[in-house]
C-alpha cells in the first residue's frame, strides 16, 4: 500500500494520485504515444519492471489510465489516457516553463506555434472571463 497524505489539501490529495516517483513520467509517456508495457519500459529508461507494473495498476485503479486487453496469451494490455489525466497538460506545461527558467540545463521550452515566442501561463476567471494576476488569487475552502 502506498503512503498517503492525510491532509485536507488539494495539493496533498493530488500528490496522493500523481506524486509517486515515475507516475507523471508514465502518464506523460502515454500522452506522447507509448501505449504498451514494452513501449513504456523502453521509453522510461531506468524504471524497474516491478515499479512500472505497480504504477500502471495504480493509475488504472485511480482512473488516470484505462487499459484494454489486446492479446490474451500471454495477457498484454494497451493503456490510454482518461479525461482526468488529459487535464494534466497544464501541469506538464507549468513544469516545462519552470524548468526552462530555473534548471541549469533546459531540454525543452514552450513556444507559441505561430510566432515562436516564449509563453507564460495566464489565469482567467471562469465566472467573468477577466485575466487575473497571480497576486490577485486567493485559495478559499470549497463551500458545501
TrEMBL record:
Keywords: DNA-binding, Transcription, Transcription regulation
Domain HTH hxlR-type: 9-107
SUPFAM superfamilies: Winged helix' DNA-binding domain
GO MF annotation list: DNA binding
Name of the protein this chain belongs to: HTH hxlR-type domain-containing protein
Species of provenance: [Clostridium] innocuum 2959
Phylogenetic lineage: Bacteria, Bacillati, Bacillota, Clostridia, Eubacteriales
Amino acid at each position: 500500500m502506498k503512503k498517503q497524505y492525510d491532509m485536507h489539501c488539494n495539493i496533498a490529495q493530488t500528490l496522493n494520485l500523481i506524486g509517486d516517483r515515475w507516475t507523471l513520467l508514465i502518464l506523460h509517456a502515454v500522452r506522447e504515444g507509448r501505449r504498451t508495457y514494452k513501449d513504456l519500459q523502453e521509453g522510461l529508461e531506468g524504471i524497474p519492471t516491478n515499479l512500472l507494473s505497480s504504477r500502471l495498476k495504480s493509475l488504472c485503479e485511480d482512473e488516470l489510465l484505462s487499459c484494454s486487453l489486446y492479446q490474451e496469451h500471454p495477457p498484454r494490455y494497451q493503456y490510454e489516457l482518461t479525461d482526468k489525466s488529459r487535464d494534466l497538460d497544464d501541469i506538464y506545461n507549468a513544469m516545462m516553463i519552470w524548468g526552462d527558467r530555473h534548471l541549469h540545463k533546459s531540454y525543452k521550452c514552450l513556444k507559441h506555434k505561430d510566432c515562436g515566442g516564449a509563453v507564460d501561463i495566464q489565469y482567467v476567471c471562469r465566472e467573468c472571463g477577466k485575466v487575473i494576476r497571480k497576486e490577485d488569487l486567493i485559495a478559499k475552502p470549497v463551500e458545501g
